[in-house]
Design brief:
By secondary structure, this protein is of the alpha/beta class. It is built from eight helices and five strands. Helix 1 (13-23) packs across helix 8 (160-170) and helix 3 (58-73) runs parallel beside helix 4. It starts with a strand and ends with a helix. 33% of the residues are buried.
Length: 171
């Protein structure tokens, strides 16, 4: 099975994924961003984009990588990855469904001001204009499709450990 942690930058996906993994036996964290990093390393580069998710190979490669890892290890993959384009989520979830891989889709949500403060105060990655650019696309996705497609965990007033416990209990 896959436990997908969605939500925009600053919502706590990466931190929470490590904690969720510790609470679910036989689970591993697979960050699909690594697939994007692999595509970014191709020389000469693929057509320019500000987001590797726009490259058509990224989505099926995420599905195939997750499938192969699960075939090899069994258990659960905890996948922290922002996907705000509905078509991309449909491609990924349909691909996983074709392989009969169940997905529990969670969105880590926080109000806009909390997200902004988290991004600007990030002591690991530092403030990031790239991450701030996704506040509005996240809000639009949340309004139009994302919150209807997932179990929403409001992290505005939760610690990552509390959010992880809620997700692990739900799974």
């Amino acid at each position: 099975m896959i436990v997908w942690l969605n939500g925009t930058h600053g919502a706590g996906k990466t931190t929470t994924s490590v904690l969720v993994q510790q609470l679910i036996p036989q689970s591993r964290v697979f960050d699909a961003e690594k697939v994007g990093e692999t595509l970014m390393d191709i020389k000469p580069g693929l057509p320019p984009t500000r987001n590797f998710q726009h490259w058509p190979p990224w989505r099926p490669l995420v599905v195939e990588t997750a499938r192969r890892v699960l075939d090899y290890t069994g258990g659960t993959l905890v996948m922290p990855m922002t996907v705000l384009v509905e078509q991309y989520w449909r491609e990924i979830s349909a691909g996983l469904a074709e392989h009969a891989i169940p997905v529990r889709h969670f969105v880590l949500h926080a109000d806009r001001e909390t997200l902004r403060k988290r991004i600007e105060g990030d002591t690991v990655l530092g403030p990031s204009s790239f991450r701030l650019e996704y506040l509005e696309p996240y809000a639009e996705a949340a309004r139009t499709w994302l919150h209807a497609e997932a179990e929403v965990v409001d992290t505005t007033h939760l610690t990552p450990a509390q959010a992880a416990a809620r997700i692990a209990e739900a799974v």
